[in-house]
Design goal:
33% strand, 7 strands, 129 residues, 3-stranded antiparallel β-sheet, 4-stranded antiparallel β-sheet
């Protein structure tokens, strides 16, 4: 089983990156160029991360593999604890999947998984058995 950011979202990020780069190129004032170029770089970083780190989470009979820019980390089922945590900030509730393998803690959101963290946790617990 694998989880990754939605392909449509990553594709939209690349389209927005191209649009922001064109806007920065065509901007008439230096201030506009700087701010739009910063936007284009931020979109480029987010889109590249979404492309390069696919799938973000992979699980099989041997354990869980988490992919990041620094590489892949594999954890066996014995060394990992799976939790779903809800946090409230500014009146909004955010849900995240926590993979705790001492000393590493990986936090994945709906954006990372492309699915509700509760559903991913249920699938991981079922696979763990």
């Amino acid at each position: 089983m694998s989880w990754a950011p939605p392909a449509a979202l990553v594709g939209c990020g690349w389209v927005l990156t191209a649009g922001a780069a064109a806007w920065a190129w065509l901007a008439s004032t230096p201030t506009d160029r700087v701010f739009v170029a910063a936007l284009a770089l931020a979109l480029l970083a987010a889109s590249a991360f979404g492309t390069l780190c696919r799938p973000r989470l992979h699980a099989d009979g041997t354990g869980i593999t988490v992919r990041a820019l620094t590489g892949r980390r594999h954890y066996s089922w014995d060394e990992i604890t799976i939790r779903v945590r809800e946090t409230r900030r500014l009146g909004l509730t955010g849900t995240s999947l926590e993979l705790d393998a001492n000393p590493d803690l990986t936090i994945l959101t709906r954006l990372d998984l492309g699915e509700d963290p509760y559903d991913a946790a249920d699938a991981l617990h079922a696979l763990r058995r």
